[in-house]
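Sample 3 of the quickstart, ligand coenzyme A:
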Amino acid sequence: MTQHSIVKITSSNDDLLERALSLFTKVLGAGLYTKAALKQIADAEDSLVTGCLEGAELAGAAMAGRLKSAGVSFYSPFGKDAIELLNGNIIGVLQNSAVEESHRGKGVGTALLSNRISWLTQTGCDYAVGLTWLHGKTTQSDHLYKSAGFQKVGPNVLEFFKSLSQRTGMHCPYCGFPCTCSAAMYAKKLNAKKGARDAK
Ligand SMILES: CC(C)(COP(=O)(O)OP(=O)(O)OC[C@H]1O[C@@H](n2cnc3c(N)ncnc32)[C@H](O)[C@@H]1OP(=O)(O)O)[C@@H](O)C(=O)NCCC(=O)NCCS
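Result:
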């Protein structure tokens, strides 16, 4: 594994925020975020935008946040076990893992995952939950989750992102518009530090 440095991305570094937005757009699809929306997420206390630098180059970026109760129904296609898990625990959601093509398979995704798991643990989450986007075109995040000890929750869901894509105008870089890729759900129990929840 090459040496990487992990940085928290906020609006105080506009250039880095801009580069993260370009990376998300290129790897995850056009129309996913506006700059203003990403800025707000990056500066919020209950979410994290993190980047992985190789020298001065932004090799990867990813996001995480606390699941709000209104967000639980998004996961209902994954079934009863998924909903029970989400309703009964404090859930941290892993979102938008994006690594530059030339840097894939070299540990960047793993470094970003481990940084987000530490942050979710410190902020008192019981579980980390992530979706794998089953585009079948390049490296998918299922390898990443399995290798970090995540368990699959429920079945693969066909065309999971279709309505989101239609609602937001998000163009999938792998299948176009609307996105008809399937998704799988993964979860991992976290060992929250004593007192972390009280600190929030
Ligand atoms: C998915 C993604 C974030 C992973 O990042 P990465 O830097 O390539 O991942 P890593 O190099 O840390 O590898 C993670 C694991 O996957 C394995 N892996 C990597 N490429 C693989 C491949 N082509 N086939 C099988 N396993 C692979 C690695 O061996 C590693 O497992 P290990 O720790 O047991 O060795 C990145 O490839 C990417 O941006 N893909 C396109 C966008 C995408 O699908 N994002 C996820 C949105 S849900």
